[in-house]
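Checklist before submission:
- one chain only
- standard amino acids only
- sequence pasted in full

Submission:
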Amino acid sequence: MLPQEIIRCKRDKGILSGQQIRDFINGVVKGQVADEQVAAMTMAIFLNGLNRQETLDLTLAMRDSGEILTWDDFDKPIVDKHSSGGVGDKVSLMLAPILAACDVYVPMIAGRGLGHTGGTVDKLESIPHYNTMTDNDTFRRTVKEVGCAIIGQTGKLAPADKKIYAIRDVCSTVESIPLITASILSKKLAAGLQYLVMDLKCGNGAFMNNFEDAKALAQSIVNVANGAGTKTTAILTDMNEVLGKSVGNALEVKEALEYLQGQNIDERLDAVTKTLCTQLLLQSQRCYSQNEADTLFREVLASGKALEKFAKMVAALGGPQDFVEKADTYLPQAKFSKPIYAKQSGFVRSMDTRAIGLSIIKMRGGRTIPGQKLDLATGYTQFVQVGDKVDTQTPLAIVHYQDEAQYETARQDVLEAVQIVDKQSAVLTPILLKI
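Returned file contents:
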C-alpha cells in the first residue's frame, strides 16, 4: 500500500475502491501513514468529496479499526443522539440521563471541541476526576447499572477516527459532509447502537451554515447509518444563535445541571432536548405516541429521576458522589466575571454565532493545536437571544475571564457579533426539519 498513490487518486478526483480506503485507514492505525498524509487526504476529500459508496466504505473502515461493542445481554433498547456541533450545545449532558430515566440504555461516545464548537468530553472534564477515557468494561458496567454513560473515544473504539479527528480540527478540513458522516458514525456504529437520532445544526454557528448543506449532511448520515444497520433519523435544528444562555465548558455543565433541577430553563434549549428525546422514545418503541413520549419526558424531569441518573453517572465514572449538591464548589471558576453592555438600546436582530465560538478559543476554552490543555472555567453566561430587548444597562452577556486583556478581547468580540436594531425581530424557530 502506497499512501501517496491513494491520496493522488482522490486529489485527481478519482473514485476510491473499498480496498484502497481500508488500506489507508489500516495504515493510519498502524502508523504506516504519516500525519502529513492524513492531512493531505482529508484536504483532498474536503475539496473533491466522496460518493455514497465511498462514504459508507470509509465509515465502516473507521468503525472496524478497533473494537465493536455488543449489547446482546442487555434487555432494553440501545439508543443515542449525536450533534454535528454548535455553540452552547450542552444537550447531551441532559439528554443522556433523561433517556436513561425513561428506561432505555444510552452508551454515548462523545467528542472533544472541533473548530469553533465546544465538545461534550471537554465539558465533562470540568467535573473533577470524571473519567472520560475509561475502559470498555467500566463503560458497559456503568450503562448497565445507571442506564447511561458519556465518555470519549477510548484507544480501542474507532482509533482511526480519533487521530483523523484531531488533525482535521487544526487543518481546516472540518466542514466536509463525507468526513463528518464517517467521523460521527464510525464511533456510533462501534458503540453497537440500535437506534440513533442526529441533531444536525444549521446556521452561522454550525459547520453547515445553510439549510441545503445541513439537509445534505442529514441525508448522508441517515443513508450511511441505515445502510450499516442502525435505525437512524435526523433533526435539523437552528444554530443562528447561542443554544441556551451559557457558552464555555464548566459554565455549560452548570446550565445543564440547572435544567435537570428545573431551574433557569431556556425555551429553545428545552425544545431541542425534548424533540430529540421523544424522537428516540418513538423510534425505539419505548413509547407509541407523541403524547405518551411528551408525558414521559416531563415526568422524569419533574420527579427528579433524570437528575438522579446524572448524579449516578458522574459518581460511577469517578466524579464526586455529591457533585449535584455541591457543583459550585467542584466546577472550576474564572478569577473574574463582568458584564458586557450594549452601546445602544434596541433589540437583538442577529448574532455571528461562529465568532462567539471562536472567542471561547481566544479565552483558551478551545484548542488551536491537538492535545492543548484547556481553561475550562472561561466563557459566557446570561447570553442574549435573538429578539431580546437591550439597553446600555442590560448585559449582552457576562464574561468569565482570567485577566483584563482577555475581557477586552471578549467584549469587542461580543459587541461585533451581536447586531442591535430599533425594531424587534422574530424569535428563531429551533426545530427546522425532521428526516
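Reviewer check: Residues 211-227 form the longest helix (17 residues).
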